[in-house]
């Protein structure tokens, strides 16, 4: 060991820094600070201290004392030495208060807080918080990822209060990213009925926020954000589809009464709209809304559309939206037109729709599905797709390479997803971290539980980065497909959403060896609502990290 240290110390500082750049900054600091003066100086170089990411310190029930010891040393011995160089901090919410009180951080400008539980938030963001008092005039960039389920009115109100406090109290803020667990929808609009001073700011230029519906989006453009340049809106839906069926005129009237500020729209240069549930209001509401953003330079659209008699193609988008935006130079899209009835007249092919985009300078790919009752579905998207999430691909998906996509949903109740298709998905989305499966059609090409052929061994599919799998609304065959190591290898799976009965059957009541490997690292399981809470001893042996 001493000889190794001598050889490392003999290297010039510049070479040491180049070598150590390949390591995580936290590891460099924790390993080298205190070894000797030279390595101290190298570790405390601005290369390793400007941006600190503490999310690699995971809070594991089995290792509380070890984690606390690591964090104590970092807070007591290391942070005071590097705090003047720190500009960016990424941290687990449960560690924030300890790290905050460890030093002064005079030059800290950017904070990312992940896995924030709502019960922690008041101590961090409400008016009397020491965190707010210390950073309200200093922080320029703030990103908050809330992990809780927002399933009831009490939590929704608390979330609204937290959002509002951040807008109101962090006066220096320019970049704000507010993310929420998107497994669950909000129960209502967040801004309806609230004062126009709510969620207001004269400093924010970049906003990425999860909201409920299109009215929330319109409220935020009514003049309360006077300097907004980039607006990324993640919505549950344009309007609640149930309410639209009951009283569409009332919904549209409420929306029309929200006055969008012209000055705000003129300053807006980048707009992204991500909508989870499909809408029938694309042409009536979304198109006129976008056409008012006359100074827009970049537009991103990700949504599903229903209630049309034809597919959305490049010609329609150009005529109705893009030609009205003279400053636009970037357009990224992922659009599904669903439930379009075959008429027997001219019906465009996927190649035809693809050409309507390419002829206008937009590289795209496209596929068309044919359902029962003469219904068709068209999915068209930018290539390359510069989005983190791609939703609702079906069995007709042609493949490709999507290195930016981390979240994928697969939806098809007319055709099964077979093993070879999942192999294609693994190749197409190499960095996928979350997968949602919705398919109640059983597989027709099932693989045996017992491997007997060499080619079967070589065809086991690996999802190297998959952390979260949701097959709650999938046939039991897909639970088998992913949990059996005959079919799939999931080395990083730690979150599983599944029907309890399916899990019991596939794991043979938590005794089956071929499914154990993909289950042993799981730390969080969500079952359907009706399942009993009692668990057997075998269940906890099968999932030792729960």
From TrEMBL:
PROSITE patterns: FBOX. It comes from the Eukaryota. Residues 5-52 form the F-box domain. InterPro entries: F-box_dom. This is F-box domain-containing protein.
């Amino acid at each position: 060991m001493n000889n190794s240290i001598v050889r490392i110390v003999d290297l010039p500082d510049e070479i040491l820094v180049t070598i150590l750049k390949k390591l995580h900054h936290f590891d460099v600091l924790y390993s080298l600070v205190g070894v000797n003066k030279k390595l101290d100086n190298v570790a405390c170089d601005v290369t390793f201290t400007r941006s600190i990411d503490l999310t690699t310190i995971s809070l594991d029930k089995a290792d509380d004392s070890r984690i606390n010891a690591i964090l104590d040393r970092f807070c007591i011995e290391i942070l005071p030495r590097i705090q003047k160089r720190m500009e960016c901090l990424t941290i687990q919410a449960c560690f924030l208060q300890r790290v905050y009180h460890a030093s002064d951080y005079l030059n800290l400008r950017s904070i990312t807080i992940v896995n924030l539980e709502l019960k922690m938030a008041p101590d961090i963001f409400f008016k009397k918080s020491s965190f707010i008092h210390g950073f309200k005039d200093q922080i320029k960039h703030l990103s908050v990822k809330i992990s809780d389920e927002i399933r009831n009115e009490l939590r929704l109100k608390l979330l609204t209060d937290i959002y509002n406090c951040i807008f109101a109290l962090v006066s220096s803020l320019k970049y704000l990213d507010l993310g929420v667990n998107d497994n669950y929808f909000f129960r209502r609009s967040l801004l309806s009925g609230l004062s126009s001073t709510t969620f207001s700011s004269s400093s924010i230029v970049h906003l990425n926020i999860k909201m409920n519906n299109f009215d929330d989006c319109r409220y935020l453009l009514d003049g309360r954000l006077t300097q907004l340049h980039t607006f990324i809106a993640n919505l549950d839906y344009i309007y609640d589809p149930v309410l639209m069926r009951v009283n569409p005129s009332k919904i549209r009237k409420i929306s029309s009464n929200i006055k969008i500020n012209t000055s705000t729209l003129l300053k807006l240069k980048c707009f992204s709209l991500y909508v989870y549930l499909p809408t029938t209001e694309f042409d009536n509401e979304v198109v006129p809304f976008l056409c008012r953003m006359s100074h827009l330079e970049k537009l991103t659209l990700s949504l599903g559309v229903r209630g049309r008699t034809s597919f959305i193609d490049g010609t329609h988008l150009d005529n109705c939206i893009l030609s009205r935006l003279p400053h636009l130079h970037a357009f990224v899209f992922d659009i599904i037109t669903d439930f379009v009835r075959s008429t027997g007249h001219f019906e465009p092919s996927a190649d035809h729709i693809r050409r309507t985009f390419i002829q206008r300078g937009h590289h795209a790919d496209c596929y068309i599905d044919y359902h029962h009752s003469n219904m068709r579905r068209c999915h068209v998207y930018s290539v390359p797709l510069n989005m983190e999430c791609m939703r609702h691909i079906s069995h007709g998906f042609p493949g490709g390479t999507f290195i930016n996509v981390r979240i994928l949903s697969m939806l098809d109740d007319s055709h099964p997803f077979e093993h070879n298709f999942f192999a294609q998905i693994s190749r197409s989305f190499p960095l996928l971290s979350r997968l949602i499966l919705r398919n109640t059609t059983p597989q027709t090409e099932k693989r045996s539980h017992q491997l007997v052929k060499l080619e079967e061994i070589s065809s086991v599919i690996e999802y190297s980065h998959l952390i979260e799998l949701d097959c709650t609304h999938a046939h039991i065959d897909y639970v088998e497909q992913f949990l059996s190591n005959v079919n799939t290898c999931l080395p990083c799976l730690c979150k599983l959403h599944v029907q309890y009965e399916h899990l019991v059957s596939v794991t043979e009541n938590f005794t089956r060896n071929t499914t154990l490997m993909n289950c042993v690292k799981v730390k969080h399981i969500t079952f359907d609502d009706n399942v009993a809470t009692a668990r057997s001893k075998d269940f906890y042996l099968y999932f030792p990290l729960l």
